[in-house]
Amino acid sequence: MAEFDGASTKIETDKESKVRRQPPYNVILLDDDDHTYAYVIEMLKALFGYPEQKGYQLAEEVDTTGRVIVLTTTMEHAELKRDQIHAYGKDPRMAGCKGSMSATIEPVV
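^ thats the sequence. predicted structure below, dont judge the formating
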């Protein structure tokens, strides 16, 4: 019978020692004609903590280009933020506003 000397050995393979990172996803706000800049700025401040100046820059970009990346994060967090945008509600400043803005998530390429 072999004698136990009390020392333990840990064998790590390259696979075990590598840190697995989740691939990043972009949260993309989509433009429409049913929301004011004030609404977009307010929503981005409430949901993302962005100051008014950054909110204005993002509102201007979505108005100009039709879409803007508002956050890059993990898939689960991106899904949460997209859902929060969808649930934020209509713009009380626009009489014809039917609801929240639209957003989507896409993997970063």
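The CA atoms of residues 36 and 93 lie 7 Å apart.
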